[in-house]
Amino acid sequence: AHVEMFHAIDAPEGYVGHVTTFQAAVHGFGSVRDLQKTRREIEGVHGKIPKGSNALGPLPKRSSLWFYDPRLRSYAVPFMGSDASVVRSTRRAMSNILKLPGAEKWMPQFGIYFTLRSRWSLFKLTLCGGCFQFLATKSWGRSLLLRFPGFFTCGAFSEAGPSKQQMANAKWLGTLYASGLVGGREKSVALQSELPDPGYIGTSLLFVLVAQTMLEERGKLTSQGGVFTPAAIFKTSSLLDRMAAKGCGVTVV
User: Fold this and answer.
1) Residue 217 and residue 235: Cα distance in Å, rounded?
2) Which of 3, 35, 76, 200 could, after both became Cys, cross-link 108 (CB 3.0–4.6 A)?
């Protein structure tokens, strides 16, 4: 099976992220070697990450820099966040740790991209992203990034962050294109989801829903203890239904 996810931020003019988000990214990229060591240790205990379903072969080959997607009428760039790693870790949790029946059915080939509508936005992201990747791996570079976040992000982050009005009118948009074999035939589906301002409102909402689900449905979770990815631990819970009830569910388009 294949799943490609494209996401974007729909925000009013002047919207900026708070600098703490940028700082977390800087320190995250600066700790890559520590992360690699941790992953090797986990692999030694729980085994390698399964490759996932290969029924349809590998994902469509995409440019490592950017490409235009006519379905969304947007430019797409590979997303540098941890989402793809979380999906891969879910494969290991379901298969090697929880040993869930039919786990291989929940292991699609996965790709994730961030989308932008204009070439100018694409240019700024490419420029800032290149500088970020170069500087974040060096101690002096991280110092520069942390000292001048606005300069190195073309004003995308600031100490003040977005105003309440800007947060109220911002949202995260996600579109997923999935394909797989059903009864021996290839089937495809497009899904969409949205979340209120992801930096503040949406993230807080998700944390509350996750905590509520754990408190009220502890017996339905796939494990009663340990460290797991969301999909692995909440697979048999009502978390998605709770999200839908709050307006951030997943719909077929």
Assistant:
1) 12
2) 3
Rounded CA-CA distance 109/23 in Å is: 31
DSSP symbols for the chain: -EEEEEEEEE--TT--EEHHHHHHHHHHHHTHHHHHHHHHHHHHHH-PPP----TT-SPPP--SS-EEETTTTEEEEE--SSHHHHHHHHHHIIIIIS--TTGGGG--EEEEEEEESSHHHHHHHHHHHHHHHHHTTSHHHHHHHHH-HHHHTTTSEESS---HHHHHT-EEEEEEEEEEEETTEEEEEEEEEEEE-TTTHHHHHHHHHHHHHHHH-GGGSS-SSS---HHHHHTTSSHHHHHHHTT--EEE-
- In whole angstroms, what is the distance from residue 176 CA to residue 129 CA? 24
| Residue 190 phi, psi dihedral angles, 5° rounding | -115, 135
Query: Cβ distance 30 to 142 under 8 Å?
Result: yes
Rounded distance between C-alpha atoms, residue 31 and residue 227, angstroms: 20
Q: How many other CB atoms sit within 10 Å of the CB of residue 33?
A: 9
Residue of 156, 146, 128 lying closest to 17 (CA atoms)? 156
List average pLDDT for each run of 10 residues in the chain, which is 253 residues long: 93 91 93 91 91 81 88 94 90 90 83 94 93 94 96 93 93 94 90 92 94 93 86 92 92 91
Cβ–Cβ under 8 Å, residues 94 and 52: no
In one letter, which amino acid is 4? E
Q: Are strands 17-18 and 67-69 parallel, antiparallel or unpaired?
A: unpaired
Residue pair 249/193 in contact (Cβ under 8 Å)? The answer is: yes
